[in-house]
Amino acid sequence: MSTVIRAGLLLAALLCLTACGTLIGRSEPTAIESKYYKGTQGSLMLLGLHNTNKEANGATVACWIMVVCPIITLASLPIDVSIDTLLVPYDTFNYKN
């Protein structure tokens, strides 16, 4: 039974550490101006790879100053893509012009 509890706690900890881009891309005041895959673009923006105005924003600078942030962001990128894929119908229905 303790193995199940340990596995559950490990899974909960991993889920808390991942999908940073989904939280960034789906928060209300966001710099992401896209209709689809907002979480993936949030992760790419955090890494500095998706930047429409060619300027470094504060989140990108803070992420690169911390050594762990880029590693966690890269690890959470597949989860962001999968969550965004599941949320494509929601984004399509709730898109505001």
List keywords for this structure.
flat; 97 residues; mainly alpha
Quote the beta fraction: under 5%
Order of helices and strands: HHHHHH
Indicate the overall shape.
Answer: flat
Task: Return the structural class.
Answer: mainly alpha
Helix content: 55-70%
Rounded to the nearest angstrom, the distance between the terminal CA atoms is 52 Å
Low-confidence stretches: none
The DSSP helix count reads 6
What number is the mean pLDDT? 76
Structure write-up:
68% of the residues lie in helices and 0% in strands. With 97 residues, the protein is mainly alpha-helical. The protein contains 6 helices and no strands. Helix 2 (20-26) crosses helix 3 (38-47) and helix 3 packs antiparallel against helix 5. The radius of gyration is 15 Å and the shape is flat.
Write the layout of secondary structure elements.
Elements: H1 2-17, H2 20-26, H3 38-47, H4 58-65, H5 68-86, H6 88-93
Helix pairs in contact: 2-3, 3-5
